[in-house]
Amino acid sequence: QLQLVESGGGLVQPGGSLKLSCAASGSTFTITTRGWYRQAPGKQRELVAIINSRGITRYSDSVKGRFTISSDNASNTLALQMNSLKPEDTAVYYCNVFATFRNYWGQGTQVTVSP
């Protein structure tokens, strides 16, 4: 079993920055892929960024060049640095890991980008 706890969400003005963190505990040695997803009101959950065990990353086109995903496997912490935030980035952000053939999700953290 795995547990994920996110932190770092909040309210920020357009153009600002936020950093999200996700701490994993439990059977972390089974994790193969880590990532961030988001869900805006009335929309489906979508991929933001993922990173695999070799450090290879992939980003959605909407955040490429603005967001950076990083993983510290020693501390089992996943981070998402978000710069140049836009109102359309407003959503609940979820930490995700894939381990032993299933997905695990955090509880979500709200990010609101507004003047």
Structural summary, described in words:
With 115 residues, this protein is mainly β. Helix content is 0%, strand content 58%. The radius of gyration is 13 Å and the shape is globular. The protein starts with a strand and ends with a strand. The protein has no helices and 11 strands. The model has no long low-confidence stretch (mean pLDDT 95). The strands form 2 sheets. Strands 2, 4, 5, 6, 9, 10 and 11 form a 7-stranded mixed sheet that branches. It has a 4-stranded antiparallel sheet with strand order 1-3-8-7, with no helix packed on it.
Question: Mean pLDDT, rounded to whole units?
Answer: 95
Distance between the termini: 41 Å
Instruction: Label the structural class.
Output: mainly beta
The geometry reads as: globular
What sequence of helices (H) and strands (E) makes up the elements? EEEEEEEEEEE
What low-confidence regions span 5 or more consecutive residues with pLDDT below 50?
none
Radius of gyration: 13 Å
Quickly list its features.
mainly beta; single chain; four-stranded antiparallel beta sheet; 115 residues; seven-stranded mixed beta sheet
Summarize this entry quickly:
0% of the residues lie in helices and 58% in strands. The protein has no helices and eleven strands. Strands 2, 4, 5, 6, 9, 10 and 11 form a seven-stranded mixed beta sheet that branches.
